Amino acid sequence: MIAVPAACFAWLLRGLDPLGRATAGVAASLCLLILVPQTMIIVRAWSPVGGLAVVAGICALVATAAWLRRPSAGAEAAVPAARQDDEDWIFDE
Q: What confidence score (pLDDT) does residue 85 get?
């Protein structure tokens, strides 16, 4: 139950390193899996099947957003160049 939302959120966060993506994906997944039932209980619409459907729908939206954000085939991934700061002298020996 945690893996699919975590994978969807991790796919959305391409700019992070793999450990950061996994951590943020699991955290977002846990938040989603806690907030959906709480909200459904508050509005008196709780059902296990309904909760699963809402989580699946949100995962589908997140996966669609991640798919739409993917770089196009002809475009190169923008890699930021190393920045030269005034404080580079600190590391010179």
A: 58
CA dihedral sign, ordered 55, 59, 60, 62: positive
Q: How far apart are CA 3 and CA 48, in angstroms?
A: 18
The yes-or-no verdict on residue 77 having pLDDT over 60 is no
Higher pLDDT, 70 or 84: 70
- Sign (positive/negative) of CA torsion 35, 37, 38, 43? positive
pLDDT at 73: 62
Helix (H, G, I), strand (E, B) or coil at 78: coil
Task: Label residue 73 left, alpha or beta by phi (over 0 means left) and psi (-120 to 50 means alpha).
Answer: alpha
* Alpha carbon distance 12, 89 (integer Å): 37
Closest by alpha carbon to 8, among 30, 27, 29, 23? 29
